[in-house]
Amino acid sequence: MRADLHRTRQRQARHSPRAERAGDELVVTKLDRLFVLDQGIDTSTAVGRLFFQVIGAIGEFEHALMRERTMDGLAAARARGRTGGQKPKLSARQIKLVREAYDRRDCTVAEIAADFGVTRQTVYRALKKAETGAAPRV
Length: 138
Known about the structure:
Layout: H1 2-15, H2 46-79, H3 92-104, H4 109-116, H5 120-132
């Protein structure tokens, strides 16, 4: 067991940045980056169960912080007028042209899709948007 711990620490030392100057600090941002998870935690003892619960609580806390930061970032992006997701494949004008071509019934949906360089499913989605009057996302 002692040799395994020594090898684990050596491996992690190789993969961690070197703190060679006086005053340099190594900051671990995620607990699983430490060698805690490579060590056996004996959960049959009170200390082992406590340690396991503390590690779990810190993991949950870390996850909650990451979620909060993500939500804050998304809110800030929305405030700047940014929206997430992929850009629409068809503009409002193109959707209108798709609707007109579909209503004329002189070509198939596959041909309409090929003309606009999109899939048939995108054409059907555009037709559904045109029916409901939903404006495409800009």
